[in-house]
Design goal:
Layout lengths: L1 H17 L2 H33 L1
Length: 54
């Protein structure tokens, strides 16, 4: 999931550089959502991973 967030971030940067601001904004929004989902899943996996070891 982090890989896809980075891919959409790169797409947003390239689109913004080339002047496609609508596509750049959309790709940046998708990248932000994917990054937040990644962080939430990472924290949940840390919590449940510790719970099983105890």
């Amino acid at each position: 999931m982090l890989y896809y967030a980075i891919v959409f971030l790169v797409i947003a940067l390239v689109a913004g550089f080339l002047g496609f601001f609508g596509i750049a904004g959309l790709a940046a929004s998708i990248a932000k959502i994917l990054f937040i989902v990644f962080i939430v899943l990472f924290v949940v996996s840390l919590i449940f991973g510790r719970r099983r070891r105890l």
